[in-house]
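protein under study:
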Amino acid sequence: MSNLVISSPYLGIAVLVIFVLSGKVFRDNWKAAGPHWKRNCWLSGIVATFCFLALAFIPFVPH
């Protein structure tokens, strides 16, 4: 078994909050279509993707 686990509820909540906020930033950049909106969408989308993958595939094992 891997040593990579989410062992604190606060860490899980922090990852969830980052996931939600980066998704909102992605949506706001997409709608505004201001300068460098594609780059901003890519950056926030990558952060949201990593947060989602962490929540989906890293087990939560409270101590």
User: Anything to note?
Assistant: The helical segments are 9-32, 37-57. Residues 9-32 form the longest helix (24 residues).
